[in-house]
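S2.1 Query sequence (Sulfatase N-terminal domain-containing protein)
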Amino acid sequence: MKTVYGLCLLVVCVVARQPNILFIVADDLGWNDIGFRNPDMITPNMDKLANQGVIFESAYVLPVCSPSRAAFMSGIYPFKSGLQHVVIQQRQNVCLPLDIKTLPQHMKQAGYSTHAIGKWHLGFCNLNCTPTYRGFDTFLGYYNAKEDYYTHKAGEFFDLHDDERAAVEYIGQYSAFFFADRAQQIIRKHDQQKPLFMYLAFQNPHGPVEVPKKYSDMYPHVMNQGRKILSGMVSILDEAIGNITQTLIDQGMYNDTLILLTADNGAEPINYGNNYPLRGTKHSLWEGGTRVTSFMAGVGLQQTGIKYTGLIHGVDWVPTLLGAAGVPQVSGIDGINHWDSIRRNLPSERREFIYNLDDFYIPTQGHAAIRVGDWKLILGYPGTFDGWYKPMNETEDTPFYEMTWAPGDKPARLFNIADDPYEYNDVASQNPDIVANLTDRINQYRRSMVPAMYPPDDPQADTIAKQNGNSWTSGWC
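Output structure tokens follow.
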């Protein structure tokens, strides 16, 4: 395995090896949908990793999927790449701009073997947009936002690919099983003279709400059927991660591996996920949509078994993982390298971040928000759902309060997140100077905002899919 630095004492040199890195994204995993926060959830493998590593209490992402994944892959705020508005739809001629160098491309250049498994959702209309053309050696997964867990259809067409080939052999199989199996195969076959980078973007627990019955049966105390199934979806995710971790141990690779897990946004209570006690949901700029479950475990961490409270944003994972790998940092991105701060439990160097900026005519996931120190300012429409929703463990569904959309920057809502982490007390009227200063800061960021890429559907996408055996594929833009 490639060496990155050495420590010499007298005539003895201790050489550190580049770590293997496993970057796990759990789709729509709620703040309260994991055992170390909610004892009703059965997640022993994730709990063990988190408790033996570092739990991030202030890790933030974007309010929906494509923007967060663009941040994970680029280290750039989505409002600068045109991916700030909702998500990439099936028939849109859009992808993460090709002039942006991705995290796996940096890793590959540094000698890593790179593999992607699971959800892509960063565009596929052109072959150059797809994972094996954006830095990954291999890819097993799907291009779109969601699909059936067994048929692997996204809308009208099949959407599961082994590199560029339609992977029809997996029809009828639940995705968490074969995603984990592919990860285990890669680990077993890996040449340990090279470091390994694996991006494992699980489908679970994103809707549709589906899981083998044995997993929902793990929750006999949950009376609401949807919540019971969602809970099982989290537990099957946990089992998959446990199986992958055990394979790392069996292959003698675990002690040289760094594992990062993050959700891509908050949970959707309409699909039975839960962010309690945070306010709001996916599709919103409230903390419940953007402050997510995240932890790191493994090699290089010097202080473990802790909760890290420093601010981290999704754009930071590119430079932070490059830092962990001993890879030269990238200039011109928004991310900050937190590797030294995380591994040594030092204060975060991040003092502010943008939750999102979206001036599209219908900003369904929120218009504009910023965090500076302890202060959070939301301008205008905050997003779709508003409220504090407890888990639906009883037979009654939780009522949802939908925000009324209106254009522009008003009203302004201000919260001190240190004093009021659950956003109960809007203090904008008492602090007009802070509102003005933070509004001015947002306007400074707006100078670098590019228009959202959100074109109308292209019917050519269907034509190409039908020609490809009714499977979504590239080649129509």
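The domain at 356-446 is CATH 3.30.1120.10 (Arylsulfatase, C-terminal domain). The mean pLDDT is 95.
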